[in-house]
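Blinded run. Sample ID left blank on purpose so nobody reads anything into the name before looking at the predicted structure. Input follows.
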Amino acid sequence: MRVRHRRNDVFYRMRSTPGGYAFLQTTERLLSPLEIPRRRRAAEVFNARNARPVMDVAGGWGAVGPANFAGLDRVLTVARAIFERKLAADRGPQRSTGDSKNLLEKRRFLRNLLLDEDIRQHPELLEFALSDDALGIATSYLGMVPYLNRIDLLYSTPREADDLIKSQLFHVDPEGLTQVKFFINVFDVGEPEGPFTFLPADASMRVLTGVRDLRRAQGQPHVGRYTDEEVEAVGASPSIVSLKGPRGSGVAIDTSKCLHLGSRVRPGAFRLVLYVQYCTTREVQGNRFETARYRTDPVRYLAIQHSEQARGITRGAPEMAG
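Blinded prediction complete.
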C-alpha cells in the first residue's frame, strides 16, 4: 500500500507538464506490457457497439443526466432510500483505527456513506456502474476497460469554520494518469448546497502552470491545493464550471486532469452525490465487488475482477473529491 501511495505522489507531481505526462505514459506501458494491451483490445470490441463519446478529450469532462443513463431514476431512488436509512440511524462520524487527524477533520463536512455490504444488498448500484451507458462513457474516454474502483454516496454538510480546507480548495486527484468519475446529484443542487465545481483539463493545465510560476515569484513553496485568489489571479474565473441543477444532473470528469472543489455547503443545506470511479491503474483503496454473476461477461468481469484479490483488505476511506 505504501508503494502505491508513493507512486501516486510521483504521478501527481509529474503529470502536470506535457513532458512529465509523456514520460509516465511510457513508464506505464513498460510496467504493464500485457495488461494494458489486453484492456485496450477489450475496449475496442465493447466500444464497437457501446461507445458513448460524452467526454471532450481536451476538456476532460462532459455533462451527463437522465438522457444518458437508462434507469437512472430508479438508481437515484435506491440511493435516496439508503441515505435516509443511514441518516435515521446515524450517531455522528465514528473514529476507525488508524484514522488520521486530517481525515477526521474532513469527515466533519464530507462523508463516504456506502460500505461494500450496501453495494451487495443493492445490486442496482453495480449494475448501473457496469451498464452499457455508464461503462461506455468511461471506455470511450479512457480507450481501455478500466478498473471499476469505487461506488459511493458522498454526503456534504456545513463546516463550522470560515476557512476552506482540503477538498473545498481547488486540487487534482492523485490516482494514476487519467480516470473517469461520475458525480450525479441525488437531490436538487443550488449554490447553498456547495456544488461540485471544476475547471476543464486544458484550462487546468494553464492554471497549474500560472499558479506555480506565481508562487515561485513570491518565494512560496508549492502545495497541491489552490486558493480562489490564486486561481483568479491567473485569469481562470471565466472557465469555471459549477454543477448546479436538478436531481439527476451530473458530470463525467477526469479528476486527474481537471482542477476541482466542492462541499462548500452553507448552514441549513446539504448535498448528496452518487459517485462512481473508473481508473486506468489498480488502486489500493476500493470496493470489493460481488463478481460471480459477471464471470461469463469478459468486459464487465475485466472491470471488477481485481476486487477478488482484495478480499483480505479492509476498505479504507480515502480523500474524496467534491
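Unblinding after everyone has recorded impressions. The chain has one domain: 2-310.
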